[in-house]
Amino acid sequence: MNIKGTEANFDICVMLFDVLIPLIDKGVTIDKNRILYYIGEGQNGSLKDEENARLEAIIGTTAKKKPIRAKSIGQNKYVDAIKHNDVVFGIGPAVTGKTFLAVVLAVNTLKKKRS
Hints:
About 60% of the residues lie in helices and about 5% in strands. The chain is mainly alpha-helical. The chain has 2 domains: about 1-55, no CATH class; about 60-115, no CATH class. Helix 1 (about 5-25) packs across helix 2 and helix 4 (about 75-85) packs across helix 5. It starts with 6 loop residues before the first helix and ends with a helix. The model has no long low-confidence stretch (mean pLDDT about 85).
């Protein structure tokens, strides 16, 4: 494979492969939006290995046992806040996963208490 461009863009491309290949190996669906998100995070210098590992973490499963994962660092921070605090206010634009993630974590808590 040949990669051409500035050194900064080359570094972002290498980072992108370093991030995406382990995700693909774990069965995470990679779409255009996820790639663009990681490129943006790479340009900002804000995507760290630790955050990438947290993005891989399964926070729940669907009824068909398909894994549910946070799709962004913001969602990860929200999930962590829910896990570590009694009350969390999620303020932000519609359709970003706030209610969905809260319900997934609530269902997990109920399942654990029944076991």
